[in-house]
Amino acid sequence: MKKKKESHRIAASDDIEVSTYLELARELRGEQPVVEPKEPPGERETIVVLDFGSQYSMLIARRVRECHVYCELVPYDTPWEKIAPLNPRGFILSGSPASVYDADTPLPMSYIYESHLPVMGICHGMLAVANDLGGQIARGAKHEYGHTILHVTAEDCPLLAGLPSSLPVWMSHGDQIIELPPGFKSLAYTENSAFAVIGSDSGIYGLQFHPEVIHTAHGKTIFQNFVLRICGCQGNWTPANFISESVAKIKEQVGGGRVVCALSGGVDSAVAATLIDRAISSKLTCIFINNGLLRRDEPERVLNTFKRNFKMDVVYVDAADRFLARLKGVSDPEKKRHLVGNEFIRIFEEEAATLGKVDFLAQGTLYPDVIESTSAETKAAAKIKTHHNVGGLPARMRFTLIEPLRYLFKDEVREVGLALGLPEDMVWRQPFPGPGLAIRVIGEVTKDKLDILRAADWILMSEIKKAGLYRQLWQSFAVLTDLKSVGVMGDYRTYGYLVAIRAITSEDAMTADWARLPYDLLARISDRIVNEVPGVNRMVYDITGKPPATIEWE
Ligand code: XMP
């Protein structure tokens, strides 16, 4: 067994009180004592998820939200001064790519113990807690990765209530506990881990496996047990509560000011606009720019929904020619993105200027974007693509931002959209990139190519909807490749475009799998596209996941 780094080790001895370990831990890390929150607990119950860098951290936050409990995902070393105002009811510590043996391994701040709130450490989170509180950690004889069977031994353990006596769980770890900290019990084991679930009477729990991934059966029950039974949350984070809270907040923030909102046709900006309309209707103007890069019938559909159904003030700008002129001769994907993004900003500014004094700009920013931008400061991430969307408006625009969805995940936005009465087809619309069809026409974008792509895409979408698969797919779309191939139609040789079809399943677009569409459906789509779309004589189906491919082709 490799000797553990002294700097992280707090001497373990049975007769030292846990509080003494905490004192030592704080001293070693140079932390200040925790200040007790002076404010009485507010209305909103929050679970704080501390991110130690696991690829699954965002999934943990989503699982808590699925229990109808609000949570925030924050870096593991967030100081107590920022945590206290959240009124936390409990902490969840994520896994980490780091080993507790690493010199600079991320360790929890001492407030997670001193606040006396329930704690659930997952994988590295559990090892870090066990390490802090005087347990012994060792490198496992084997790296445990993938499915394994968990055997529950504890009786009457609130965290494992309702679980069968054995269940499949998902493991991914090298280190493991070999000796429990004082006051802890083993609650479940696996073949390779005697301490796969541990707990203490003071409400601190640890799981060696990952309950947040779908491969762990009953993961949802574990989260429900922790946040509802152990932390005592009520589960009152519902769309209706969110709507009334947000409407009140927007009224307060905006006062008598004027708001503009860019509609993209997608669910996020639609929900943001509808919320603001509820709060301050007459002070909101929406701007919808048709960039000529939308799917067939999209502009009409968006306008109808907002003008007729919601009676909102929508300024419609048909700028298709301006965008096409900008894109002339451009085939580099990143250049296309920048051109489309910049032109959008220019037109948006021109339109906003005609409205007189505007104080606020509303955006449909979602929580994953917020998390990504906070973690971007701490995590090195290679830039794959610049994602230019409405959120890419420049800081020099002199508006204050209103982002009513900045703490919501996509599925929550959809629930709120339904509760606000948005039509189902808008709420369940698949994500569509800001640069639109410009990044689905490979190579130079021309009006003719856009028309071919729109026709092929229309057939694909109609068939997917007819087959009842639209909602199950994260995205489904056609790509017009730059490639021509030889074919034969009747007695004639053809030389036409190759259309590619992409249909994927995903939870958050970070990773994706290609959808196993039925062969009959693929055959129907192919028949229709090559027969009904002039200029196309061949279709292929993209069967690449992300990674290694990305979702879009450009
Ligand atoms: P990739 O292709 O990076 O796409 O796997 C991930 C998700 O982002 C969308 N996407 C974009 N959205 N502007 C956007 O607003 C963009 O430039 C852009 N590029 C990709 C893509 O459709 C998928 O949902």
Written description of the protein model:
- By secondary structure, the protein is α/β, with parallel strands linked by helices.
- The chain has 16 helices and 18 strands.
- It has helices at 18-29, 57-66, 80-83, 111-114, 124-132, 219-230, 239-254, 267-280, 298-309, 320-327, 333-353, 367-375, 410-419, 424-427, 447-466, 519-532; strands at residues 46-51, 70-75, 88-93, 119-122, 136-152, 166-179, 184-189, 197-200, 204-207, 259-263, 284-290, 314-318, 360-362, 400-402, 475-489, 492-505, 513-514, 536-541.
- The chain has a nine-stranded mixed beta sheet with strand order 2-1-3-4-9-8-7-5-6, with helices on both faces. The protein has a five-stranded parallel beta sheet with strand order 12-11-10-13-14, with helices on both faces. Strands 15, 16, 17 and 18 form a four-stranded mixed beta sheet that branches.
- Helix 7 packs across helix 8 (267-280) and helix 7 packs across helix 13.
- It is globular.
- Residues 1-18, 33-42, 376-382 and 388-392 have low confidence and may be disordered.
- The chain binds xanthosine-5'-monophosphate.
- Xanthosine-5'-monophosphate binds at residues 337, 385, 387-389, 431, 433-435, 475, 509, 546, 550-552.
